[in-house]
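> run fold ROK family protein
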Amino acid sequence: MHNDLYAALDIGGTKIAGALVSGDGRILLRSQAPTPAREDGARVMGAVSTVLDTLIADPRWGRASALGIGSAGPVDASAGTVSPVNVPGWRGFPLVERVRNATGGLPVTLVGDGVAMTAAEHWQGAARGYDNALCMVVSTGVGGGLVLGGKLHPGPTGNAGHIGHISVDLDGDPCPCGGRGCVERIASGPNIARRALESGWQPGPDGDATAAAVAAAARAGDPVAVASYQRAAQALAAGIAATATLVEIDIAVIGGGVAGAGEVLFAPLRRALHDYATLSFVQHLKIAPALMGTDAGLVGAAAAASLSAQGETAAVGS
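> ok
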């Protein structure tokens, strides 16, 4: 794999990023365009084409053996389609077919963005060396992916490991997904901030009411801010423990903006996990912060393409 070259796309509601990635995980070229998320599907695809054109124009493009896409979801890798919640113009959009046509028939692998992050963390990051792992993105939403038996496990449609929509509060608030009491409804950044505000937390003079501002208040000892993060940690712990009980993971890796709160999140998370992960085969589960940062989507998409080319994962939209 070290001599190979892969193309990668990271599709999100804010930006569309592209890269050429070496076989050892180094990003050799980057390209980026804003996502015209409120425009029609053709305009959004136009932004993808702009990013691809930069990659294709590079003299190294001819060495690319496959292209991976990590996209905000839901995705359907079996059909090659994407329907990102935050890009209304794409519903069942045939992204794999369009990208394959734009690249002259290059093999294309599609996975959800949580699976892409998981592939990156297992290849180069905090889950490296672990055969069974859950990797999570805790940000505006909560997503995730699984490594089982040493291999990426995207599932038939590329969405396996989507821990954000495990219900951890049976009578909890309705979630936009249609369920109740989902991990995302409790632990995502906007919901951490919402809960703090509803419980009487007051933003500072700058008016910053984000989860990062709540984390800063928690570090300063504000009890309402502390309680909101404790509740998020409890929801994450319940979801992680349920996943570990189901498929026996060795490590849970947590990235995304909310993980940037550091010990404000991780300290209560470790305590809550001790309460929820009680069976003998999950008691030694390790919690670790993600290491790949903002490159996770691109590196993970390249990793998914590589694994697909080697026949090590079934989530192929080509």
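The radius of gyration is 19 Å.
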